[in-house]
């Protein structure tokens, strides 16, 4: 959605307005864009468009050495858009010292949760001469730092608020020239020294809004606004003001929300260039032999730094497990190794399923996961089927990957502890104890270890009650959901035009009983699959493959050359929508409600399975 | 751009920023529009500078008495570019 589409959704009274708004805020490139969105938000409020409940209400005080409009307007807009409602106290221009100090004053009575204190740069200036002794200048700088930290302490004593302290914008004009570097008395050095000391001495409960950093990121001159200062005491240009408000909003959000814990990464074209299964170990781009390879390597280095700060890493890739693992084990240029990950899912299941599995295995909420992929389709499936997961779609250039991830600002900690640094090894140990099936190759070994036996029986009178029950009860793994009475089932026994059989499954842990049914009707040399259903508890045990192998064998015996399958959609059988194509059938006609598929029996190769098949006649 | 053209374009800017946008005429001014306070005025100027790609000089917008004069100022700064 762009801003005009958002306006349309406002005019239509569409509640989607509220979900789109934060996304547009993030994309908004500049002050007037955000003010436009802020106006829309206020219009949506007056029109009473149904909005999600705010997650909390914050009493926010904004005080400082500048005019605090439109700063507070932007700040409140950003916070309200992400579900943080604000009660606001706005200080008067350059009145923050008395506002903070006044016992029983308006600010204290307001009892803020959060105070944003933005001191004016005019208070951070050495009054003497550029040639004054360093000790003398340093004492003056010290007193600026002390004054501000005292103010914070007083505020904390009187209000129990969390404090966000803005430091001082750097100088961006040349004066006094290169000499600025040779004396602490130059505005440039004086402010930098004060900023540095403020950051290093911040007490608990005080957080820095680093204007020096923001201005350097934004560009010093682009942050200047002398006319705004003379006309209405603005701290800086409106474009830099937006960045400051984003930072304060980010810090406030960080006070109330848990940080992300797990970074889930795609492999091909995310951690290396190319597709390892196609290009091979030698063909992927990683490492210092090419610029692209270097870029991917740098991205891996950044990811490893995140791990060092306590972020858990995981892999989620549509891939063959062994092939996906190979670069981590054998490629000399890889920075990341298999032991850096707490989960490694390389298979063909939907990524949303894999991430859900990781969440349950690691016992972490889905909302602590971040998923990174270069493929928009994969991002979309996770957005749709695991919406709690935050997704990042990588841009077209791997040189930008690290920067893009950093700018999402998801893994920033207020503090980093020694425990953070060890987190991966703790989780890995836990994962090994629970030893869950992580991969397709493990899956094969696992299935083999089950020692499964499949008993194939053509329909017979003894089974009729159980057959009828299953036919009338199965909803999910049921291609056509055709129900039948006992008499109708009975009528199929020994019928010359029908091939009908059931499967029972046993493994070394016990008997699952009769769990699968197929009914096929022979029409000339085509076998039409009337019914195919299965009990969900034996999914992914290769029962499907076993059934098809058997079905094809019986069909060929009766002279069929083609098999025709149909999928009839119901509200409950979405899981088998793609079943026939997955089994190797060609689609002939597919709509939302039904799909028709065909299998050429002359070329069909039986799938190998770990189920040993027993037939009634053998 | 003449005054009428400028005012037509200004109307779009106002529509984006005001909750209840006034219908602009050369004679209208901030005191005729309750919503148009000094705070909203700042947003308006930023949007106008961007939309028209002009840069005002310190104090000169304050000196205009109505939309007509404001539009003339925009046109003047525009031709100087």
Backbone structural class of chain B: mainly alpha
Q: Helix-strand pattern of chain B, N to C?
A: HHH
Oligomer: heterodimer
The CA-CA distance between the termini of chain A, in Å, is 64 Å
Residue share in helix of chain B:
40-55%
Distance between the termini of chain B: 13 Å
Unreliable spans of chain A are: none
Major pleated sheet of chain B: none
Instruction: Considering residues with a beta carbon less than 8 A from a beta carbon on another chain, report the largest interface and each chain's count.
Output: A-B, 19 and 17 residues
Question: Count the helices of chain B. How many?
Answer: 3
Strand sequence of the main sheet of chain A, in spatial order? Answer: 16-17-15-14-13-12-11-18
Largest sheet of chain A: 8 strands, mixed
Radius of gyration of chain A from CA coordinates: 33 Å
Q: Please state roughly what percent of the residues of chain B sit in beta strands, choosing from under 5%, 5-15%, 15-25%, 25-35%, 35-45% or over 45%.
A: under 5%
* Outline type of chain B: globular
Notes on the structure:
- The complex is a heterodimer of chains A (618) and B (81).
- Chain A is an alpha/beta fold and 618 residues long.
- Chain A is 43% helix and 20% strand.
- In chain A, β16 and β17 (594-600) form a beta hairpin.
- Chain B has 81 residues and is mostly helical.
- Chain B has helices spanning 3-17, 38-52, 67-80.
- The A-B interface holds A 30-32, 35-36, 39, 42-43, 46, 69-70, 73, 226-227, 230-232, 234, 238 and B 16-19, 38-39, 42-43, 46-47, 50-51, 56-59, 62.
């Amino acid at each position: 959605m762009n801003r005009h589409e958002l306006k349309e959704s406002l005019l239509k009274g569409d509640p989607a307005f509220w979900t789109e708004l934060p996304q547009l805020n993030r994309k908004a490139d500049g002050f007037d864009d955000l003010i436009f969105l802020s106006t829309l938000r206020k219009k949506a409020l007056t029109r009473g468009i149904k909005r999600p409940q705010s997650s909390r209400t914050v009493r926010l005080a904004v005080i400082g050495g500048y005019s605090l409009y439109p700063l507070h307007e932007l700040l409140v807009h950003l916070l309200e858009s992400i579900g943080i409602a604000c009660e606001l106290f706005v200080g008067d221009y350059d009145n923050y010292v008395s506002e903070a100090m006044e016992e029983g004053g308006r600010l204290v009575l307001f009892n803020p949760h959060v105070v944003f204190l933005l001191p004016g740069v005019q208070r951070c200036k050495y009054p003497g001469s550029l040639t004054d002794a360093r000790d003398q200048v340093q004492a003056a700088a010290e007193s600026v730092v002390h004054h501000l930290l005292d103010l914070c302490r007083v505020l904390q004593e009187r209000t129990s608020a969390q404090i966000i302290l803005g430091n001082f914008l750097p100088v961006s004009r040349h004066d006094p020239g290169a000499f600025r570097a040779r004396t602490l008395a130059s505005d440039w050095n004086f402010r930098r020294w004060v900023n540095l000391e403020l950051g290093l001495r911040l007490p608990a409960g005080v957080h820095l809004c680093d204007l020096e950093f923001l201005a350097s990121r934004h560009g010093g001159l682009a942050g200047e606004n002398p006319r705004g200062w003379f006309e209405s005491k603005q701290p800086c240009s409106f474009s830099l003001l937006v960045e400051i408000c984003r930072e304060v909003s980010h810090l406030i959000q960080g006070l109330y929300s848990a940080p992300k814990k797990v970074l889930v990464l795609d492999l091909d074209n995310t951690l290396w260039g190319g597709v390892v299964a196609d290009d091979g170990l030698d063909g992927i781009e990683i490492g210092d032999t090419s610029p692209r390879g270097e870029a991917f390597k740098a991205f891996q280095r950044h990811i490893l730094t995140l791990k060092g700060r306590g972020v858990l890493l995981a892999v989620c890739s549509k891939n063959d497990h062994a092939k996906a693992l190979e670069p981590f084990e054998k490629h000399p240029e890889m920075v990341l190794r298999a032991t850096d990950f707490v989960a490694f899912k390389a298979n063909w299941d939907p990524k949303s399923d894999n991430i859900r599995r990781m969440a349950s295995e690691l016992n972490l909420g889905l909302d602590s996961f971040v998923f990174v992929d270069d493929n928009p389709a994969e991002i979309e499936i996770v957005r749709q089927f695991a919406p709690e997961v935050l997704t990042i779609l990588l841009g077209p250039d791997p040189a930008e990957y690290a920067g893009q991830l950093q700018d999402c600002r998801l893994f920033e900690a207020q503090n980093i502890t020694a425990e953070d640094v060890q987190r991966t090894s703790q989780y890995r140990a836990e994962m090994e104890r629970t030893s869950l099936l992580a991969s397709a190759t493990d899956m094969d070994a696992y299935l083999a270890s089950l020692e499964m036996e499949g008993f194939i029986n053509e329909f017979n009178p003894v089974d009729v009650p159980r057959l009828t029950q299953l036919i009338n009860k199965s909803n999910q793994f049921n291609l056509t959901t055709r129900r039948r009475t006992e008499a109708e089932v009975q009528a199929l026994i020994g019928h010359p035009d029908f091939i009908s059989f059931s499967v029972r499954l046993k493994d070394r842990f016990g008997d699952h009983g009769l769990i699968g049914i197929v009914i096929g009707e022979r029409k000339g040399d085509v076998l039409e699959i009337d019914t195919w259903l299965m009990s969900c508890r034996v999914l992914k045990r290769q029962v499907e493959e076993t059934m098809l192998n058997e079905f094809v064998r019986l069909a060929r015996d009766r002279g069929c050359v083609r098999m025709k399958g149909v999928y009839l959609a119901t509200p409950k059988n979405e899981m088998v929508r793609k079943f026939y194509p997955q089994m190797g059938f060609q689609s002939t006609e597919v709509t939302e409600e039904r799909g028709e598929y065909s299998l050429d029996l002359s070329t069909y190769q039986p799938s190998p399975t770990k189920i040993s098949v027993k037939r009634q006649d053998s | 751009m003449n005054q009428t053209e400028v005012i037509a374009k200004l109307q779009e800017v106002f529509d984006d920023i005001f909750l209840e946008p006034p219908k602009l005429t050369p004679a209208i001014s901030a005191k005729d529009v309750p919503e148009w306070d000094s705070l909203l005025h700042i947003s308006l100027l930023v949007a106008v500078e961007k939309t028209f790609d002009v840069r005002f000089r310190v104090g000169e917008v304050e000196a205009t008495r109505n939309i007509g004069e404001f539009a003339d100022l925009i046109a003047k700064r525009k031709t100087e570019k």
